[in-house]
Amino acid sequence: MSVMPQKPRKGFSLPHSARWPVGFLIAALALFALYYFVYYGPVDPDFKAWVQRWLSIASMNESLVWVMCALGLNVVVGYAGLLDLGFVAFWAIGGYTVGWFMSAFFQQWNVHVLGTGPETARGLHFNFWFVLILAGLICAAFGVLIGAPTLRLRSDYLALVTLGFGEIIPQIFYNGDDLWGFNLTNGTKGILPADPVPAVAFDKEGVGFRDLGVFDHLSKYVIFVVFVAVIVFVSLRLREGRLGRAWLAIREDELAASAMGVPLMRTKLSAYGIGAVAGGIGGAAFAILINGVLPDRFNFSISIILLAMVVLGGMGNVWGVIIGALLISWVNSTGLPQAGNAINETFDTNINFPSWSFLIFGATLVLMMLFRREGILPEARTRLVLREPGRTEAEALGADLEAPAPELDALPEIEVAGDSTNEGKRS
Amino acid sequence: MTAAVQPALQAEQIKVQFGGLIAVNGVDFTVPKGGVVSLIGPNGAGKTTFFNALTGLYKLAAGRVVLSGRDITGLPPHKVADLGMARTFQNIRLFGLMTAEENVKVAMHSHLKSGIFGTVLRTPRQRREERAAHDTALELLDFVGIGKTAGEYARNLSYGDQRRLEVARALALRPKVLLLDEPTAGMNPRESAQFTEFVHRVRSEKDLSILLIEHDMSVVMRVSEHITVLDRGQKIAEGTPEDIRTNDRVIEAYLGSAAKEGGA
């Protein structure tokens, strides 16, 4: 992370590798303090309104969901170099896991496992923390299930097939209210409401353990930050180990990796599975944020936006991906509409800025690809390849790097006119 | 070689076919334990194809590959590598954006045991394993003479160092047989001469057998104990360097193709 400015520090200095994690924690704590203050503290109403307009906690929580999913996709795309255009599938599966196991939806069954739903209610009522693990496992299983037949394909073909799965799975949720007479997903109506989450709550009276309601945004913020932290931790640890090296090797040169004893299928599947777990956690988090699950949220554009977050943020670098995800989701949810309102008010115009989001998004992508291909905060190694021409690129430009050394040409025994093979003369 | 000693690598009646083209046809081949064997032949003779077939990159149309008594025919490349056949590539295929050390560590993948949970929790066993891997990697880099480059990205190394790194990476597999595909390509005569010593040092210190494809005849004649000549997918000669030097069919294959190219 050499992008950090190297400031001389007095007394104690953080180890290089700890700067970003510590920065992340400080930023998260500062936001927590801000929100706590705005909610419960004696605060100027104007300031409160400003925060709610420009940095509302609800949209911050949604941004954190985006961060989780983008970090999952980063394992697949950034680490292992597998292009996935259907990541929304895992977000959806994670969400529906919460819908199924934490609501009164399945009226035909009546199972309560430390659940928080009303005790008399029918349906599956599992404890959220249990369902969270379940969402991760189900997504990992689906990741492997989708990956097993598709990962044999290479780059473009893989992208196309993942795109297909990313379309199929949300469509199943959309139309799954009558699967051979069985209502699996409740179709367009979605599954609402989900049971409350038992967790540590932060409110006026202080800290306590209780079931969170729909508007306990601050507590959910804390939960989501913890989720993100865990995903980051796992990503970083895996990256440094045996598996992370194998992913990188596959990203760099699949054939050489296999010749060096790296099992391609298993290694790719593990990237897919682990990425899917993060997507599932994101999906579950989103479901408790909006208190249920609705199928129309899971369309193709989500996959594309997630991919853009990874690419713009800086493929392979979790901190870059976090920044990319926060930035893009903030612009989409808050920045663009609010800035549009401000412009409309100031100039007395009536432009619908949010409808321009894809135009602006596309233009940003083009500009980034032209001027900063490696993303906002790239991995050190990726920056290297995108900033200097490599051997093969130089060769593409016409440099003959394989040419023999000049002293070879000076050897008299090889100087035979019209003979292009040296061996013939020597043997 | 006594009959009781099992050959390190034995290939029987290898046939590789691409559609209607038979690239390698019925080649028998043996690398004795501890031997240095060369595979030579004019351009397009099927040498690299033969390598790729041995290491599992190409499916065999017919034939059998036996590595130290174990049939490895049809196994995927990573299994073949794990069982003790390591290779380098004709046009260097390093992991460019990984450091030299990481490149070597990738090849230790099959020897290392730690899984997802061990890595995430950084268990004492995983840490011990990583430390050992680090030491081994540095040792190997030192062995091939590029210990100082451990922290540099492979793509930034000089051409010669990249070739050395490929050998170090292959050695990290702890192979029984090391396949070198044109290791001296792009080297000047002095480097090629040093290479001969290097091959013998690898063979004796790492206790393995070496099979190499080579174009530079002076290297081939000096380094190998046994030479096999391929031409148009067929084995046309086999023997000691002295036999090959005087073999009529070999001379014809080389001079014939050279004359043809010259005339074209």
From TrEMBL, chain B:
GO molecular function list: ATP binding
PROSITE patterns: ABC_TRANSPORTER_1, ABC_TRANSPORTER_2
Keyword Nucleotide-binding: yes
Highest taxon of source: Bacteria
Keyword Isomerase assigned: no
Keywords attached to this entry: ATP-binding, Nucleotide-binding, Transport
InterPro entries: AAA+_ATPase (IPR003593), ABC_AA/LPS_Transport (IPR051120), ABC_transporter-like_ATP-bd (IPR003439), ABC_transporter-like_CS (IPR017871), BCA_ABC_TP_C (IPR032823), P-loop_NTPase (IPR027417)
Domain ABC transporter: 9-257
Protein name: ABC transporter ATP-binding protein
Organism: Luedemannella flava
